[in-house]
Amino acid sequence: MLELAxxxxxxxxxxxxxxxxxxxxxxxxxxxxxxxxxxxxxxxGLDRARRDEGVRVTFDGRDLAQTKRSLWLPxxxxxxxxxxxxxxxxxHLSAAQNVAYGLHGMARDRRATRVDEMLALAGATDLAARxxxxxxxxxxxxxALARALAPGPRLLLLDEPFSALDGTASDALxxxxxxxxxxxxxxxxxxxxxxxxxxxxxxxxxxxxxxRLTALGPAAQVLAAERERLLNRxxxx
Amino acid sequence: MDWQAFAxxxxxxxxxxxxxxxxxxxxxxxxxxxxxxxxxxLEALTSLAMVLPPTVLGFFLLVLLGPRTAFGxxxxxxxxxxxxxxxxxLVVGSxxxxxxxxxxxxxxxxxxxxxxxxxxxxxxxxxxARIVSSVLIPLARRSLLASVILSFLHxxxxxxxxxxxxxxxxxxxxxxxxxxxxxxxxxxxAAANRTAGILVGISVLALALIYSKARxxxxxxxRREHA
Lengths: 237, 227
Known about the structure:
The complex is a heterodimer. By secondary structure, chain A is of the alpha/beta class. In chain A, 34% of the residues lie in helices and 27% in strands. Chain A is globular. Chain B is an all-alpha fold.
């Protein structure tokens, strides 16, 4: 279970969210600029809260960050995987080497097996030898997903991770990923501003508006208005 | 041609460059990735040698490393000889004098690396040393080469610090620049031309190496999306 209390400012933007995520798959839904990425970066430890901010993040009973106690675990010690919209693959390494990057210290044969498994899960087996500059946006996102999963995170954070994939490919990958996460008991949080993506997973949805939590509950309930709007749009065509 | 001075200059430049590399890489990484409020002061201190006249720097070092200060006396006791007017002293002076020329290309190169890549490495458990060796250095190779070559050339051609701190002792502190100065002072322009020609030749070769590497690397061709 992930519990968070975030009271943080980034310039004129104020993020204030206090909630618990109990579901294995949660979607943070909100328009661009609503604070989704800021929230995910604070969870991952990529952004460090200032002392005068009130930030507390607890995952499965373990404190990841608590400004009151000046506690801040570095990203690499949080057992968190993060896939951003920009895949940020290391350009000087092949796709397989990118996936192996987080397996530093693992025996070579085990590492190779793990890399193969993760590339297969992401549907990127045939991309193993390619360099990032030879990959399309969608292919790079698949490799970035495999890289984030390889070290075996306990929490997976996804920030519009499949935006470069077409709908069918994205749905198929999402189905495989959800099954794998369930089998491996990994909690996932996905940020998106795309209503069909949020509705498709049937997840718990956190609605974020201008840095504030405005609703939290089942997708069909929280996104009822969005669902209605989409249906009306389809009917009118 | 004073081959002894030539060999001494090469030795001084090589030792200085190796030491500078060991200091400048972690220092540049700290300046780029660090968060401390003191980093601006550290960066200013690193660049100080660039704006100080070499003779002023040489004078300060001469006083600091000489028998007038406790530090200089301590060093002399430790090494068995004073650092001033010795090859070791020249190395210390050269490292301080050329530090900004080693650090600044690296800071520029490291800062140009996409922060998303550094974030990705941090998330995958890489500590600062691994981020530097596996992400920053491979992606800032040209800056590293520029840092090495600038440090080497700057040391090869330094004059003010060398003269102040080392004097003119054949085989110990007499470098090519000092030889050139002596030749001009003695109106031996033919020899001075040869010495200057060697210094210019080394500089041109080194710079050609930087630019040829840069041209070979080039820009990657744009890729078509085919998801």
